[in-house]
Write the structure tokens for this entry.
Amino acid sequence: MEINEILNLSAIELAEHIQEQKVTSEEAVRAVFKNIDECESNVHAYLDFWKEESLKKAREIDEMIVNRASSGTARGPECRGGNRLSDLELPPLLGVPVAVKDNLLLTGKKMTCGSKMLQDYIAPYTATCVEKLEKAGAIILGKTNMDEFGMGASTEHSFFGATLNPKDYKRVPGGSSGGSAAAVAYGGAFAALGTDSGGSIRQPAAFCGLVGLRPTYGSVSRHGLTAFASSMDVAGPITRGTRDAAALFNIVTGPDSKDQTSVFAPKVDLAEMEKYDPSGKRIAIPKQLFSEEAKENFEAISRTGEFLKNNGARVDLIDMPVLDYAVAIYYILSSAEASANLARFDGIRYGYRASGVQDITELYRKTRSEGFGKEVKRRILLGNYVLSSEHFNDCFRQAERARNMLKKAFDEAFSKYDLILCPTAPGVAPLLHEIDKDPLSTYIADLCTVPASLCGLPAVSVPFPRKEDESDSASKEEDAAVPSARALPVGIQFIGPRFGEQEILSAARFLERGGQKI
Ligand code: GLN
């Protein structure tokens, strides 16, 4: 197969092609590394990748597939238990090159969390979700850049430098999983894992024109995911399409004895996804998440609502006043959790240690002052403030109560509606350095993603499919070497009740398939 044909395959199509020996895993890995060689110096999606090791794994897989095929002949080799190799079902992502965010552990590899604090830290074990990907046959080819410890929405807050948006180099890819999104967007991986505490999978997926799934809290083990806000952290897929997102979710989900908050969640039926029919579905758009100020997003949601209505759904604008407090609740609670979680980085046990200190207090102070970046320090200060005895009752407790009110508001909405539809972000990808000017407005821009995070709900961002003529005229003006600011991607978000992955991904798939009509 031609290299471009290979790169155009989805992750699950590639796995099928590799199994059917239409393409080798080695060819796929080489194709991806060709893109990495071409784009990395501009985009900087990866913090680390290992080409030779990935190629070696790919060749082993290819060899196994060839042996398996030859065992299908009458006297082929038998494997343990007397079964023929050819009778064994192959793992679903066998030979597919995948990237993972650098806050997920992978034995023997660096895991930096985008921080100076962990710049030389080597993972002693592998995160459960990464292990599951490996068991599914995926080739993990590298670790992707991120906002330090997951705090941010642009991937500019990485100690190792910003990642740029492959759709427009003047813009950020979103964050904090911006490296994972950028890598998938330029074809530097067939899929990636990100993590989402307050939107870090969905928002970069939206800014890079990809699908990003935040699974139900607890449905994916957090073992080996470096904690930021433990009551909201969850790992999930960033992919080019909804079917890949569903396939990756099915692989990484499942209870884990190493994470007491992990639970069983139903898997997504990919065949059912194709049969989704919006007629009779009840879909709500909360008016608090739908503002006329952000033109592109307002238009995208209006047109999506119309499209679903034309296909038989009932689409209502609803009022959820408590949503006005979602950003405040999120930043109080997530910063409180972050300040507790990051207390372990003290220069004693692991990570960076400052030198030239007189005593232990100075060691703590100097290590943490030098090891953490500006945004992380801001969150620790905020977290310590809201947890201090003076402010605990009026900030932290109040935020907890408000979080419960938000949960109740969603329960009530889901007693009447199947789905919630809203934008993923209030606008398109911001220009580089725009965020530094005003951190507060960046926090406010998390409005559309933090509600699902606070309530443990599953949510997916899917690119708003423009009409053929619109995307055509945009792409004609695009010079391939210099991505244009035109036709920047806009994300549509579906939020579902707990364990509603099937419903949200099916609706997203419906949009993806019928998109050109919108
Ligand atoms: N933008 C959010 C924050 O900065 C999201 C972070 C996340 O999901 N990891 O906290």
About this structure: Residues 74-80, 472-485 have pLDDT under 50 and may be disordered. The two ends are 33 Å apart (CA to CA).
